Structure formats: C-alpha cells, structure tokens
Amino acid sequence: MSMALADYFYELSPELIAIRPAPERDGSRMMVVDRASRTISHRMFRDFPSFLREGDRVVLNNSRVIKARLLAPESRIEVFLLEPAGERRWKCLTRPGRKMRPGAVVAIAGTEAHVIEALPGGERIIEFLAEPDLEKHGHMPVPPYLKRESDAGDEERYQTVYAKLPGSVAAPTAGLHFTPEVLADIPHSFLTLHVGAGTFLPVKTERIEDHVMHAEHFEISADTAEATNSAKRVVAVGTTVARVLESRKDEKLEACSGATDIFIYPPYHFRRVGALLTNFHLPCSTLLMLVSAFAGADLVRRAYAEAVAERYRFYSYGDCMLVL
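Request: output the structure for the sequence above.
Response:
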C-alpha cells in the first residue's frame, strides 16, 4: 500500500465546512460504511443505537475542553495554552512570537505572563504570576478553519454533554452528536484522552511514516477496562478513543494512565476496536489516515467522494460516519 501523502488529499468546497453545529445535537446526518459488504448508506445520527448489537460496548472520551485562548487586546498578543508544565506554568503557543521572547512579561487574563523559555518547535514555556481564571478570561478554542471568534454558543456546543475532566484544547468531536437521551439507551463507558492542538496539524512529510505524532495524556479506569474486556464488540466514539485503546498492547486491558503518541495508518491491524463513529476529517490529517486504516483507504476515498456529492457537512461541527 502506498505511503504517499498525496493519497490522503481530497478537494472540498468551503461551503461544505460546518461553521456552526446542527440545531440539535442528534440531528446530524450519519453515513454508514459497512466494511464487510463495502456498501455505503445514509441515515441520521438518531439511528445510531439501532446499529448496536447484543454484547456491544460504546466507549466515549469524557475529556472537557478548556477555554485555552487568552487575549491581551492592548498589546495584541494571544496565548494559547497547550498543557500544564508545572506550578503556574504552561506550554503555550503565542502570537506574535517576536513579542514573546524569553524574558518578556505581558499583562493578560487578569494576571501576568512571564516567558521562561522558547522551545525548538516554537512553543513557549510561560509562568503566570497567578493561575489564570479560564472561565472568566479564556475563550473556547474553536478550530482555526472556522475563521471566526468563539461565542456563547460554542461554550455549550463545542463540548460533549458528558464532558467531565478538563484538559483538552480541541473537542473530541464524534461525541458532540450525543444527547443524554441517546446515552441512556446504549451500553457505554468512558475513558479520557486530553486532545492537543496537534490534532489540527496536517502531515507535511511526503512519506506519512516520517511524520512525528504529538503525545496526548490519557486515563482508563478499572470499570472501563473490565467492560471493554468483556464486550463482544467495542464501538469507539472518535479517533481519540481508538488511539487510546489501540495503544495498549497487553492482551487484557488494565486500568492505567499515561501518554500516547501512537500513529495509526494503513496497513494497521486493529486489536480492540470493532466499529468506529467519527466525523469527516481534514485532508492529509492523521485522523483521516486512522479512518483509512480501519475501513480501508479505497473504501474511505469512495465514502468521502459520496459525502461531497451528497453535500454532507464536514469537520468538527459537521456530520458523522459510522464504520461497521
């Protein structure tokens, strides 16, 4: 199978990018891709429970998106929190970088940000005089391709209804379709993977195996491990869940926590995940490569072409695909 980056590119008209969520969470369209029959059908997400069978266990990511964007309008500086790096310290992206060299001090988010270090990748280690109040001063980190500022609507809709543990700087978007009513009807468990900003980064190496994957922190509880081990089929809600489950190489899943930088692309053999619910992903992204590994690159190319032809809504606030 080709490892060329060009195999994961597709054309998408900008009007198919969902700038806002559907009026109702469970009102999105759902493309159903059957790997065995190689057929594609069109349903609504509300039909999702009807595709589950006895013994299935649906696993979801309960990470909560933090208001990671901090703005200093007077100095025109933006600080994007990536992950904690110690007491009152964060690894951050900053803009413009020329104003945020080591030693710089900026008043932002009701406190002061001191630039401690510039990392090789361009990130900054910033120490705050006091831990910033993100609920008061932060902004939701909606994806850059939306080309708009976040608003009050995003505070609710760019968050799953079951989000619990704060730490993500991007939503696990396959879960945005779920309502409490849908969850009540299905056997489900939660794990946690804090989604990093690297989820939006396209692969830039010509050969995909040369790409260096970003690491993300995860946690699996004993209850989730036990439920997953006893399931006849595991239905992963999102690529984040799939990555966590596939990163554990032991035959029996155990309660654990840590970080994973697993990069899944064809030809990869999935050991734990038996079905996958996912949104439609950016061209040349690691997420598209994971879905291609799960469903087969040719079938995914055909599915995406049909999604474009049928005018599905793409990306974080868009429609979804169920791969069986």
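Residues 5-65+143-323 form a domain with the QueA-like fold (CATH 3.40.1780.10).
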